[in-house]
Amino acid sequence: MYYVSTRGNSEKVYSATAIKKGIANDGGLFMPERIPEIDTEFLKELMPISYSERAVKILSLFLDDYSADELKHAAEFAYGGNKFDTAPAPVVNLDKFIDVLELWHGPTAAFKDMALQICPTLLSQALVKTNEKGEAFILVATSGDTGKAALEGYKNVPGTRIMVFYPENGVSTVQKLQMATQEGDNVNVCAIKGCFDDAQTGVKNIFANDDIKKALADNGKFFSSANSINWGRLSPQIVYYFSAYCDMVKSGRINLGEKINVCVPTGNFGNIFAGYIAKLMGLPINKFICASNKNNILTDFINTGVYDRNREFHLTMSPSMDILISSNLERYLYLTCGSEKTCEYMNALSKNGVYQIDDNTLKTLQESFCGYYCDEEETANTIKATYDQEGYLSDTHTAVALHSAKKYISDTKDETPMLVVSTASPYKFADNVYFSLTGEKSKNSLKALEDLYNLTKVKIPVPLANIGERKVRFTKSIDKENMAQEVLKNM
Ligand SMILES: *Cc1c(COP(=O)(O)O)cnc(C)c1O
């Protein structure tokens, strides 16, 4: 199957090349030429098998230039061993209407592990498959979780080198420490004085800069990306929607074929878009509830069709969703209204920071998506209410989704079983979770892990348990204008 650019140039590549390059030559994102379809038989086959076997079955529909053995090796390496402290994507029942899909049982305690544990293997296989002699230089902009998960996934992977930029004041203390203490010989981490969008824009500009690309090539290297603009990141995320659905059937929550709703705490629109692809493939999903924090640009977009980034940016307690440019929306636009209009909208976005989709596209959008958001106080109240009433401890991002899901249910009276996607361990944001529960601040962010444990007795994930004792390796912070220079210095 070929992959093409959302911006419509004539480039046509196999998935290995799409994964290797990360982004298309015209600045667009790679998309499969068609979306494969599945039937009930396919779902039945997924029922009895493990997560890693489910991953092979689904990925083989998209990455058809990879052999079955290659995919099996990649999936086993990611999900088959003991990198996850439970099954990789367990579904937990919350109440009469809501089940929670926990995606944070991996090595960095956030959902990014679901893709970033397998993506590096897919990339190193792609290098072999495409006869690539150069080294892949992975450049990452992160709002916190991607950076750590990518560092952990790529550390010491042959043929790769990774550099991560994060907003100095836009990530939690635990997130910062996780990155600053990263081990591995091929890793580098740098803070920038700016917000996530500055980091992301900086990285996109570096990817598009011919001078830097040439300098890199002269050095025997080429750029690749580990952000969800890379198809190698996005495609593994389709798997857990299938897996969750099968587990809900197996547990008797739903009947095979019955529709569910899915609520996703959203930033870059990658996670929810992977779910949308699952729906297009034939997984019985009715509606997606797109949950945002106070940076509610997507809520407005889904309600009005106007995407307007000219607005105040808020730092919230769910920092991985503090985003004003949701890159993967471009893929949705491409699927819905084609590359010509996508180009038009993306050009308007980069020129004026705003675009408006046409009425038909808006209508299609609203058939599958509802937008809800949750402010800081509601997030805190949701963490407390969910713990007090259901005995369930949720992180700040998941709380945004829980609030949105409950609001959707009470607004619409839609009683379709709801799957809420949980994206991080509560311990990753322990200070805000502890404060939400008690109204008291911990002495510092690391003490908060201990305080939260003493209060709830919920187990601290092993990778976060002794984070304060590890050696800090990376402390550099630079102006956002100097990102390109920093890359040149470190390539
Ligand atoms: C990355 C992240 C999100 C947002 O996911 P997108 O794919 O960018 O929409 C939500 N919650 C957490 C904890 C994350 O790390």
| End-to-end CA span | 33 Å
- Summarize the biggest pleated sheet: 6 strands, mixed
Q: What's the total number of strands? A: 16
Average pLDDT works out at 95
Query: What spatial form do the alpha-carbon principal axes imply?
Result: globular
Q: Hetero groups bound?
A: pyridoxal-5'-phosphate
Q: Pick out the low-confidence regions.
A: none
Rg to the nearest angstrom?
21 Å
What count of helical segments does DSSP give?
Answer: 21
Helicity range: 40-55%
Structural class: alpha/beta
Strand order of the largest sheet: 4-5-15-10-11-14
What's the quick description here?
This protein is an alpha/beta fold and 491 residues long. α3 packs across α11 (231-250), α4 (68-80) packs antiparallel against α6 and α16 packs across α17 (396-412).
List the helices and strands and how they pair.
Layout: E1 3-5, E2 12-13, H1 15-21, E3 30-32, H2 40-46, H3 51-62, H4 68-80, E4 91-93, E5 98-102, H5 112-116, H6 119-129, E6 135-141, H7 145-154, E7 160-167, H8 173-180, E8 187-193, H9 196-207, H10 210-218, E9 221-225, H11 231-250, E10 260-265, H12 270-281, E11 285-292, H13 297-304, E12 306-308, H14 329-352, E13 354-356, H15 359-368, E14 369-373, H16 376-390, H17 396-412, E15 418-422, H18 430-438, H19 445-456, H20 462-465, E16 477-479, H21 483-490
Parallel strand pairs: 5-15, 6-7, 6-9, 7-8, 8-16, 10-11, 10-15, 11-14
Antiparallel strand pairs: 1-2, 1-3, 4-5, 12-13
Helix pairs in contact: 1-6, 3-4, 3-11, 4-6, 11-12, 16-17, 16-18, 18-19
The structure holds pyridoxal-5'-phosphate.
